[in-house]
Amino acid sequence: MTAAIQLEGLEKIYHEDQPNIAVRAVNGIDLTINHGEAVAIVGPSGCGKSTLMQLLGCLDRPTRGSYRLEGQNVSRLDDDELAHVRNRRIGFVFQSFNLLARYSALENVALPLMYSSVDNPAQRARAVLERVGLVNRAGHLPSELSGGQKQRVAIARSLVNQPAILLADEPTGALDSRTGEEIIQLLLELNAAGTTLIVVTHDLALARKLKRVVRLRDGKVEADGPPEQVLAEAPAGVQ
Amino acid sequence: MSIFETLRTAMRALLSNKMRSVLTMLGVVIGVGAVVAMLALGEGTKADIEKNIRSLGSDVLTVRPGQAQMGQVRGGNVETLKVEDAEAVGELPGILQVAPSAQASAQIKFLSNNVSASVVGVTPEYFEVQKLVTQYGAPFSETQVRGRRRVAVLGSNVAMKLFPGSEPLNQRVKIRGLSFQIVGVLAGKGEGFSSPDDQVLVPLLTHQTVLFGRDYITTMTIQVENENDLDNTKLEIEGLLRSRHRLRPEEASDFNISSTKDVLATVGQITGMLTAFLAALAAISLLVGGIGIMNIMLVSVRERTREIGIRMAIGARRGDVLLQFLIEAVVVSLLGGVIGLGVGAGIAFTLSKVAGTGFVLPLYAVALSLGVSLATGVGFGVWPARSASRLDPVEALRYE
Ligand SMILES: Nc1ncnc2c1ncn2[C@@H]1O[C@H](COP(=O)(O)OP(=O)(O)OP(=O)(O)O)[C@@H](O)[C@H]1O
Ligand SMILES: [Mg+2]
């Protein structure tokens, strides 16, 4: 069986053409993540976690190296093909929710369906909203929801096209610890139901709940393994 | 994304900022409104004039003194045509009748009522050639003309002004201080442009001797037997008048002959110039409106950078984003065009009612205003929309 994600020598260099300000944000990463895994990505601020997630989420192209998504090399796809991957095959959850302010919870969830022209978008969106426990808030605007509820709406939106892989960049970063724990719980439930899960987090207590932890430093994988192993040897620099 | 969804998205964005959308639209509304109003008024006036000219009939030639310069604008000596010229023209073959006339302005008085009108000296043929019908009384007789009688036939407007609510027939009015008996009143024609309604007719000889002491005429209206021979007849008349006026071949004619067709062509030429002028005006006002749209759309794209990033992150293609903003610009512009069309037509209609001229909303003006506002939306919306579609998703998401 092919891996969900397979990275070989992945690099992302910002401003590569200007040597004095070039940043090697991702500096040669080899990583394989299988279907159904739940992976936490940790590391000090600026080590390249978000950059890596943007590459994984097909929001950006690597400078060098290869990225195979379910066996397909996506580092060579054109803009429209990448848009299609983002729409159908990968769900992305942001720290800052990124909901459209003038759209209701239900409309936000249905938004990806507008770009994939499926039947009964409202019905499908409602079903996903039910799954994250927010049907009773379907008509509310984001401004009328709590932080945790907003993140649930964002997760519902990322799920509405039933992607195989769910990426979350510090999904609990803007939430208090109890609400954050609920969100992680929800993500783990989705993982248990079969979705491959990759979460960036600063919260080591949350990272411990995932079966595999990858620690980055200076754009490279520093440690990779079960949480007991990776987090035990964590240097003081990692919160 | 389907075009219907895109349209809905655009409408939502426009409605969520109503005031701005309305103000953006205003540029196009004013531009299109002004153009439509002027086109409608211009066409209405043109139709009026043409109807007036056509009422003369297509078998009629008009000879006027003076040289033809720059189209139909006349200049030079205006005392070149004489009654004898008219009589000679009447002898030519193919001529049905000739109506010489002399025109001048004068004050007409009845008791304390006073109007200034165009006093035209005419012969009995004038009524037939000009297709004038009397509502009361009768046209002049040959005897009245030969006898230099002081009789007058009033145009309907003049009659109304001088005799509000009383019978004009057989009353006496004063023209240039001389007493004239009213022997007829013309039926109203209801046209605004040099209409017989505003004239007072007197016998030609009376006009020339008693009233104004001039021996020349200002117009010779000629009805031909066969309108297909109009051009030939015109040449014959020209030859005759030139020899009567002893003009050498190299000299220009001191008169000019025009047919209804010629006059219509001139009117068409003038309206054409007016239309070109309006088109330039339209281009300028729509340019201003279009720049307004582009300006607002650029601001809107900047403001909504984050939204664009979000849409791209969840699967919007560049084309989807482009279309979304383009359609927004087109909706604003087209809506402005439709409203402008209504406003312009309303203004033209009101003005034509006030001025008593005709109202015509030409189909081409409707098509033009809608087409041009559509083109404005596309033309000025495409750059902002392109700049939106070219955003980098990661950069756009980071935008505060
Ligand atoms: N668009 C960019 N242009 C230039 N440099 C960038 C850009 N984005 C990120 N970087 C740099 O790349 C490095 C990695 O940034 P990244 O955001 O991936 O870190 P991170 O691990 O997510 O940090 P944090 O934990 O603070 O979110 C940083 O040094 C950052 O300054
Ligand atoms: Mg980050």
Textual characterization of the structure:
The complex is a heterodimer of chains A (239) and B (400). Chain A is of the alpha/beta class and 239 residues long. Chain A has a single domain (5-232), classed as Rossmann fold. Helix content of chain A is 33%, strand content 25%. Chain A has helices at residues 49-56, 79-88, 105-114, 121-131, 147-159, 177-192, 204-207, 227-232; strands spanning 5-14, 23-33, 38-42, 64-69, 72-73, 90-93, 165-169, 196-200, 212-217, 220-225. Chain A has a six-stranded mixed sheet with strand order 6-7-8-3-9-10, with helices on both faces. A four-stranded antiparallel sheet of chain A has the order 2-1-4-5, covered by helices on one side. In chain A, a hairpin with a 2-residue loop joins strand 4 (64-69) and strand 5 (72-73). The radius of gyration of chain A is 18 Å and the shape is globular. The mean pLDDT of chain A is 93. Chain B has 400 residues and is of the alpha+beta class. Chain B folds into two domains: 3-51 and 266-398, no CATH class; 79-253, no CATH class. Chain B has helices spanning 3-15, 18-54, 83-91, 124-129, 142-146, 156-162, 204-211, 230-244, 260-303, 305-313, 318-355, 363-389, 393-398, and strands spanning 60-65, 67-69, 73-75, 95-110, 113-122, 134-137, 151-154, 172-175, 178-186, 199-203, 219-224, 255-259. Chain B has a six-stranded mixed barrel. Chain B has a two-stranded antiparallel ribbon with strand order 2-3. The longest helix of chain B is centred in the C-terminal third of the chain and has 44 residues, at 260-303. The A-B interface holds A 54, 57, 59-60, 79-80, 83-84, 86-88, 92, 94, 98-100, 102, 111-112, 114-117, 157-158, 161 and B 1-2, 5, 9, 12, 16, 306-307, 309-320, 392-394, 397. The complex binds adenosine-5'-triphosphate and magnesium ion. The site of adenosine-5'-triphosphate has 10 residues of chain A, from strand 2 and helix 1.
